[in-house]
Amino acid sequence: MTRRDLIAGNWKMNASHLEAIQMVQKLSYRLDPEDHERVDVVVCPPYTALRSVQTVIEADHLRIHLGAQDVHWEQAGAYTGEVSATMLEKLGVGFVIVGHSERRHIFGEDDAVVARKLKAVVAAGMTPILAVGETLEQREAGNTDEVVAGQSRSALLGLDADQLGRIVVAYEPVWAIGTGRTADPDTAAAAALVIRAALAELGEAEAAESARILYGGSVNPGNIAAFMAKREIDGALVGGASLDPDQFAAVVRYWV
């Protein structure tokens, strides 16, 4: 089964709404129509820039998808500072990152919280990008497979086969996030196989084969081609390199 590549940029807590407008415009100038035929390109600005980026994408008919970095699991209520999946969907958001290691380890989100967020995204008709990955201590203890499979099963349990087939999972080893260190392509591919096997346990094998599995962790123009050469890897979740339109375009155009 052929899966369409997906490259998503997680801008984290960077860029004002004015800077975000410039970034997405510059990115669009650096990509050709052929690039969009081959790759789904997603940008995930901070909440304050979502409306501005959405307006640019729609007004200029850009073939760039809008994503969000996080979400709350409730549709509405007394949750000061939070944003619901319904609100994001109304802004034209198509993808939402859930379970990023920074949410898990800085803000204390456990598997149960991640699962609730993911279900809210699916219920709103958007596509979750579920981030899973082990810490350095877990890796050194030989628990990588157990951690990534467990995080995947916990978040995706209860989805039907159709929903599972549309899921995006990003393998992001915690020790490689923002550190300049990366997993080698073979390690990333092995983790992708573990994740796909976990998906197969939850639904039909065909659904597991349809889901897209990305690699994330200090991805840049110099290493993306090696990861994309692995058939088990369907794209990347890009952090720092996505803040520079030139670098991000080079990641998207990894085959050039």
Features:
alpha/beta, 256 residues, 13 helices, 8 strands, TIM Barrel
Walkthrough of the structure:
The mean pLDDT is 96. The chain has one domain: TIM Barrel (Alpha-Beta Barrel). It has an eight-stranded parallel β-barrel, surrounded by five helices. The chain is globular, with a radius of gyration of 17 Å. α3 links the parallel β2 and β3. The protein contains 13 helices and eight strands. The chain has helices spanning 17-30, 33-38, 47-59, 85-90, 101-105, 111-123, 136-140, 144-156, 161-165, 185-202, 205-210, 224-228, 245-252; strands at 5-10, 39-44, 65-68, 95-98, 127-132, 168-171, 212-216, 235-238. With 256 residues, it is an alpha/beta fold. α1 crosses α3 (47-59), α6 crosses α8 and α8 (144-156) packs parallel to α10. The longest helix is centred in the last third of the chain and has 18 residues, at 185-202.
Overall shape: it is globular
Beta-strand percent range: 15-25%
Helix/strand class: alpha/beta
Uncertain runs are none
What's the count of strands?
A: 8
Radius of gyration (CA) equals: 17 Å
Q: Do you know the CATH topology?
A: TIM Barrel
Number of helices: 13
Averaged pLDDT: 96
Distance between the termini: 24 Å
CATH class: Alpha Beta
Structure described in brief:
The chain is of the alpha/beta class and 256 residues long.
